[in-house]
Amino acid sequence: xxxxxxxxxxxxxxxxxxxxxWNTLPWWRKVLRLLWVVPLAxxxxxxxxxxxxxxxxxxxxxxMVQRFNQQLFQxxxxxxxxxxxxxxxxxxxxxxxxVIASEDGLFMYHHGFDVKQLKQSYKENKxxxxxxxxxxxxxxxxxxxxxxxxxxxxxxxVEAYYTQLIExxxxxxxxxxxxxxxxxxxxxxxxxxxxSQHYYSKHAxxxxxxxxxxxxxxxxxxxxxNPGNPSAYFRKRTRAIEGRSKQYGRINxxxxxxxxxxxxxxxxxxxxxxxxxxxxxxxxxK
Length: 286
Fold this sequence. Notes:
By secondary structure, this protein is an all-alpha fold.
């Protein structure tokens, strides 16, 4: 029997027909098609990234790239990059306790957003007061892993989107693990393992409560607050975080909702805040 010859030309013809079909479309049809194809592709990419990072540690973050470029082009600024991933189970529990005490007391309870704080910030902004930070650990993780550090309403909206995704796909323990591995602790120093070795010459698993509190205090302004050279305010703040972490007790990242304090279990979500926000806007416009 004679073997049939395979012919790849029909496939090539099909591709050619698709391309020809695109070229024959009027410009407005092309625009309409792009209007749904591009957002769909970006949405699928975001889902793929979030799902991948549930198990794979981000090799780099936008902030790491941003800081590296700043170091390259700013005079008298040394180029430095220290980063090493570590499992959260291999980090001193004092570190987890202190960052929650310092940055996000309701971390184990909220759905990614501290809605009470968001409402308070909105009210203070309306009165012309300085806006207090309402960024949770989940929001900081989303911002650091997926977005550049630029202030804009669009970036905040995308940050909220990624925050909700990681809350759904990752869970609290993975969020804390990624947070502790990517957060900035100094110029070119990323993650608790690199910070622990840089400032204390020890592994993150060996951190004391005091050392963990010092690292937690540096987080809001890591380029200005140096655990290796603490100011009087820095030491005062460190003592406050130590005391607060003792009050909170040891945080169990594996805890289920029913195991948590019933007093704080019922937390509003971002949809509740959006409804409240538009209600405030409607009342103020009357």
